[in-house]
Design brief:
By secondary structure, the chain is of the alpha/beta class. Helix content is 41%, strand content 15%.
Length: 330
């Protein structure tokens, strides 16, 4: 090997060694000052192109009620949570948004029907019952009509229910989410600041698996998980008083412990809850002193306590202008 070839190889090896010392995969050019971790850089890349989170004018706290799967009593919990928040503090103003576009339940449960009126700014006024401001796609379509929409249309409808409604002023806006971890959950978490999520599940193992996925999804999009609600926790025979854990016992407590969460409360399986929901007379207002109603009010108290350490969503200057410009016509 001649001296020229050896010299060329040595120079090449030295250059490669210097490049390895000066650069990393995240900083291939070795630019000084780039000391961010891989997680921080990944978070920055994910944030690029995402919509800016804009508060809903006049709304202090947004609480989403979600579940990993359907049929666990999520909508019933959302309705009675909203009513429980209002019952625990009569001075508070509470709203209820039905974000389940394909299967709206709020009109029936809150005994409301008819199309919303428009104010001078062409914004919809929420329908009100039991002192709760409500909005749902069920107010805008016939109750027997199937809503067969793809993702983009569903997202557009959710945005209209958020932005084209005179919600404020509200202390709490409770959002009844559709089941699962799909487009609606992701869109809401990326477009509005959410104060916290309440995950509803039965004690059944298969429901708890999906509840865990729901909680993990909210954690990934940096939405605080306030805790779990264990619905249909026990059935007590009205004749003999025997208690039967039909769907299992303390399953929510186990998963909550594993995830470092708390159980906000247990709701028993009782016919008065089902009848009240079907008849448009939720148990918190129809039987306010019943154990079932008190269970929901206790959950509402736990939610309020957890939110007390969270600052209210401060409207940006744009939101304040938006709110004041619609105040006269609301």
């Amino acid at each position: 090997m001649n001296a020229r070839v050896l010299k060329t190889r040595c120079a090449r090896d030295l250059c490669r060694s210097l490049c390895r010392l000066m650069s990393t995969h995240e900083n291939p050019l070795g630019i000084k000052g780039e000391n961010k971790s891989r997680e921080e850089l990944q978070k920055e890349r994910m944030a690029r192109g995402l919509p800016k989170k804009l508060p809903i004018p006049g709304v202090k706290y947004v609480v989403v009620v979600a579940s990993g799967k359907g049929g666990v009593g999520k909508s019933t919990t959302a309705v009675n949570l909203a009513l429980g928040l209002a019952a625990n503090n009569p001075k508070s103003q509470v709203g209820l948004l039905d974000a389940d576009i394909h299967g709206p339940s709020i009109p029936c449960m809150m005994n409301l029907q008819g199309e919303p009126e428009l104010n001078n700014q062409n914004l919809m006024k929420p329908l009100v019952n039991f002192g709760i401001k409500c909005m749902s796609m069920g107010f805008l379509v016939d109750e027997k009509q199937a809503i067969v929409w793809r993702g983009p249309m569903v997202m557009s409808a959710v945005q209209k229910l958020l932005r084209q409604v005179t919600w404020g002023p509200l202390d709490y806006l409770v959002v009844d989410m559709p089941p699962g971890t799909g487009d609606t959950q992701l869109s809401l978490s990326q477009n509005i600041p959410i104060s916290g999520a309440v995950i509803v599940s039965t004690p059944q193992d298969i429901a708890l698996l999906d509840a865990r996925r729901g909680a993990e999804m909210f954690r990934k999009v940096e939405v605080p998980v306030l805790g779990l609600v264990q619905n249909m926790s026990v059935y007590v025979c009205p004749k003999c008083g025997h208690a039967e854990h039909i769907f299992g016992q303390d399953g929510a407590a186990t998963i909550a412990s594993d995830m470092g969460l708390s159980v906000l409360g247990d709701v028993p399986l009782h016919i008065c809850i089902r009848e009240g929901s079907d008849n448009g007379q939720p148990v918190v207002v129809s039987k306010p002193q019943s154990p079932q109603a008190l269970a929901y009010r206790q959950i509402a108290e736990q939610v309020t306590e957890k939110l007390s350490s969270t600052p209210p969503i401060d409207p940006s200057p744009q939101s304040q202008h938006f709110s004041s410009s619609h105040k006269d016509g609301s």
